[in-house]
Backbone:
């Protein structure tokens, strides 16, 4: 069974930093493109960042570019999001999500339960 | 960047109704479109990929259609479990973009 479990969320002051983790199991993590997607309270979904298998390519949304860093450790089946210079508008539930394989590529087939990040003084 | 616009933002319907949600892209995206269902406090669930392909395990009352710039998600006969928020999502090789969501409410 595929499982994605996020951790690391919490309350942080504006300008602060936080590292989110996503522990993956039930599939060959190293083979898949992984993503972070966030959802501000009461709002819609916003893609944040993506990392291809092997970490060959990394992409960010304009809203987090230069402040957030995505990484992965295939030996630990883990995905990370290092968040710096946090702002109030970064407050959201952060999901890790796997990109679907093969003909289903381009969609996100497995999601974690999310971890809440609150940026407030 | 390609913008995805869903309509309506809110839809009130009854059990048994046929409902359609529309998603428009600001430029042609071929069939690179997915649909998700999200319930409060839960992660999104993939329903449709490549505009019209039904994800495994998703009931056949859900269907997707369209290509280019206009897409639709249709639920043929609403069930109580279908009242949720629905999102469309476009993918290109370097990013994803979501529509703003359509909340499907019980009339």
Residues:
């Amino acid at each position: 069974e595929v499982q994605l479990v996020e951790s690391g969320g919490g309350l942080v002051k504006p300008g602060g930093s936080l590292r989110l983790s996503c522990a993956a199991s039930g599939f060959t993590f190293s083979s898949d493109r992984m993503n972070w997607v966030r959802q501000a309270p009461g709002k819609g979904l916003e893609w944040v960042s993506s990392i291809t298998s092997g970490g060959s390519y990394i992409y960010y949304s304009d809203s987090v570019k230069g402040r957030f860093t995505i990484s992965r450790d295939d030996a630990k089946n883990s995905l990370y999001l290092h968040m710096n210079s946090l702002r109030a508008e970064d407050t959201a539930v952060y999901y890790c999500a796997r990109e679907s394989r093969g003909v289903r590529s381009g969609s996100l087939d497995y999601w974690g339960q999310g971890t809440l990040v609150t940026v407030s003084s | 960047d390609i913008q995805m616009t869903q309509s309506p933002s809110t839809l009130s319907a009854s059990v048994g109704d046929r409902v359609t949600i529309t998603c428009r892209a600001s430029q042609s995206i071929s069939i690179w479109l997915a649909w998700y269902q999200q319930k409060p406090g839960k992660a999104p669930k993939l329903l449709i990929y490549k505009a019209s392909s039904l994800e495994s395990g998703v009931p056949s009352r859900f269907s997707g259609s369209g290509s280019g710039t206009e897409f639709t998600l249709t639920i043929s006969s609403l069930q109580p479990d279908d009242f949720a928020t629905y999102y469309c999502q476009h993918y290109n090789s370097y990013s994803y973009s979501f529509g703003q969501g359509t909340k499907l409410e019980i009339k």
